[in-house]
Amino acid sequence: MSLNFKNFIKYVTDKNPNEPEFLQAVAEVTEDLIPYINEKHPTWNDLKILERIVEPERVISFRVTWLDDKNVVQVNRGYRVQMNSAIGPYKGGLRFSPTVNLSILKFLAFEQVFKNSLTGIPLGGGKGGSDFDPKGKSDNEIMRFCQSFMTELFRHVGPETDVPAGDIGVGEREVGYMFGQYKRIQNHFAGVLTGKGPNWGGSYIRPEATGYGLLYFVQCILENLDEDFSGKTIAISGAGNVAYYAAEKAVNLGGKVITLSNSSGCLHDPEGFSLEKLHHVASLGRELAKYTETYKSGQFFTDKKPWDFACDIALPCATQNELDEQDAKTLVKNGCRFVAEGANMPSTMEAIKYFHKSKVHFAPGKAANAGGVAVSGLEMSQNWIGQQWTSEKVDGRLKGIMENIHKTCVKYGKEEDGHINYLKGANIGGFIKVGSAMKAQGLV
Ligand code: NDP
Fold it and tell me: Are domains 58-189 and 209-363 of this chain identical in fold?
């Protein structure tokens, strides 16, 4: 039996109405997978591998009650989407943001399945979080929320079951509060979360991993074309964990980073951010506009995006659907030839189609931002054997993993004219191991 893309998307849409982000992610992946399975593994259709892979193994939704600093009771909703455990324990971050809903977490968990498989580390896919808004909360409020969140989550996670990490709004501080609560309830010092501090089970290079890995991946794309970073202008969106370390590595590799951004606007410095300027950005927190008080070369725009400025390489590192078709057209018109996603699904489907049509080298997040989960996997390995590796060792492993992901994308994404379709390569390369493991494990 062969599958038809349109019928399949109708089936998934009917089952998951009102989940636009999840449907977008499913369409983006299955457009490549369906022709591949029909040709190479038609028997997988009889086993309904695709129908199963779009259905989470388990979705947990729970109430999180906590007391704010004014002693007012607050109620939030927590989630964990345990998407697929065919090749290892569920693994994926926790996002704290008022924008969090089930559609967004299902899209992130779905993407995570393919991303984790691409790393070559045995990790399944999951994602979770809460509609809790950490912005403007005191340290004590963050702690009380995290403790309450873990008081329910602890029964669903474990070092060999499900190992969450950080994402938007969740960094080392939040991971610390959740880890402390898990340890208190279970009386067990276990590697149940990654992104821990280096003094209590964390891995060196984990904070840097997603941004550094992104640049290692772009380096592979450039080397494949006999090019390098020198003389190249880079536009980055976001000013959080991924964006910051992407900018730092880009500068170290010889590129000129000209933008950063946050939800208030875009910071443009046509002279480029030096490492010193980047350190200053970090000290400003969310007040990016204040940069211009110290560095006169910078300008802050509340009405512009990083994609409005001419660049050779665009690295969207903020959030989903932040780069649309119009942005893609502006980038291409201004000479951009490379786009690599640090964020998850930052480009709309129309933008991706435009990049492909324009022969822009486009690297999807599931390949290009896999460095974060890869080092999380290395953190789990260190926890299991009770060791802590040096920064150099972890960084070397990270670089090797990103190079292997690039090779996988080339293997499955090379087109007749020699151009690499990285999206197709990542979708198929990430799927094969998961699909065959699901087949081997029978109807579960
Ligand atoms: P952070 O919370 O550290 O930073 C997010 C940044 O993006 C902030 O500067 C934020 O600005 C900005 N931002 C958020 N929403 C918008 C918006 N609508 N418009 C403009 N700017 C926005 O998160 P991370 O850096 O960890 O994550 C960024 C992306 O990378 C996410 O898509 C995440 O899923 C993905 N990712 C993260 C990994 C990790 O290891 N952390 C691993 C792989 C992927 P503001 O402060 O104003 O909200």
Answer: yes
